[in-house]
């Protein structure tokens, strides 16, 4: 697995993403609703409030969003990324120009809701496999352009990151094997190309393929769409010779049984591509 951390999501990168999102929302004409309804010098005090239970992620995005249009807005963080939220938890208090706050509201909540949803879904899976050695990891099934923030949210939820892209690890899948001609040929070519500094993983669908991969020197193997019984056989057959990753048909209902087979990793695409947005809202407490 590729280990990245929050350092890969710099303040400069966050600011660029937020600025682009606000520009997309405002377009050339600006926030027509706030411009027409809210006096230019009106001020407001507001709170970001959780409407559901979950894990906070992305608070830096909200911070930057509410300062982007009015740098003098005053913000008080009441939670940090990784903190547990329940219905009614206040995440942030903002005071300042009412127009700027309302214009930045949706961008701030979109980022935080999406990231908190991923962190929350990940945390549920991590909790479900507690007591086993299995670690929950993500995949490349991410929103184009938002992979870094989605993988960051996975880590906030207690998961780990798989490769970040095609550039930082080799993962030989069934189509690669088909073109290469065999598991042995694919691995031989990958090892020759990558050298010892790049991790090589290969996907197998059957125990026969697993044995072929082990005999060819594979040290990280993805077991695709195997049943718990097959996974247990795979763990026994491998006997510590390689790290094993289970993938396919993983849900909150199935993940514990998969983890109990003894695999090292469980990759779950749905935590990034299908996690529900955590419901967060903006409540005005005082306006003037």
Core attributes:
6-stranded parallel sheet, TIM Barrel, 11 helices, alpha/beta, disordered N terminus, single chain, 2 domains, 288 residues
Name the poorly predicted regions: 3-7
Approximately how much helix is present in the residues? 40-55%
Q: Overall pLDDT, averaged?
A: 95
Sheet with the most strands, sense and barrel status? 6 strands, parallel
Name of the CATH superfamily of the largest domain? Aldolase class I
CATH topology of the largest domain, by name, is: TIM Barrel
Strand order of the largest sheet: 6-11-10-9-8-7
CATH class descriptor of the largest domain: Alpha Beta
Structural class: alpha/beta
- Shape descriptor reads elongated
Task: Give the total of beta strands.
Answer: 12
Word description of this protein:
This protein is of the alpha/beta class and 288 residues long. It folds into two domains: 6-118 and 276-287, Aldehyde Oxidoreductase, domain 3, CATH 3.90.1170.20; 127-273, Alpha-Beta Barrel (TIM Barrel), CATH 3.20.20.70. 42% of the residues lie in helices and 19% in strands. The protein has eleven helices and twelve strands. The strands form three sheets. Strands 6-11-10-9-8-7 form a six-stranded parallel beta sheet. β9, α9 (228-238) and β10 form a beta-alpha-beta unit. α1 packs across α4 (98-128), α4 (98-128) packs across α5 and α8 packs parallel to α9 (228-238). The radius of gyration is 23 Å and the shape is elongated. The model is unreliable at 3-7 (pLDDT under 50).
